[in-house]
Amino acid sequence: MKKAIIQNLFPTPIYMTNMDRPFTKQELEFVEKQKNHCIKNQGNINTKDNYILNRKEFKNIKKFLDQCCKDYLERIISPKNNIELYITQSWLNYTEQNQYHHKHEHPNSVISGVLYFDCDKENDKIKFTNPKGYQQIKPE
After folding, report:
1. Closest to 94 measured CA to CA, from 124, 51, 59, 121
2. Euclidean distance between CA atoms 35 and 46, whole angstroms
């Protein structure tokens, strides 16, 4: 029998990592203060500021996330040309008990990311869905 080749047709890589340090007191205080500067979202609230990573309080977090983008670019996308990924927008979402984060898409993003500051590992989950639906190839 000839050696078979298996090719991923529509792979969806999920890049997961942890910061190599705990959040600082200043970072956590900043996150807490931002709750006072939010707007209602579908199911929860989020900050009015859509460029939160540009704030000085998040300088080191942004540096870490920029490094993650660079690693993702090199390991997953592996471009032939010398290109760079950069973070365009960033905000904070707050979801309290009996609230939820609505199903949504980021159609203009090459990649999207989530960073959790405080979560309950048993109850706080992220769910991904295939926007194209499941397609099957059926032999005759």
Report:
1. 124
2. 8
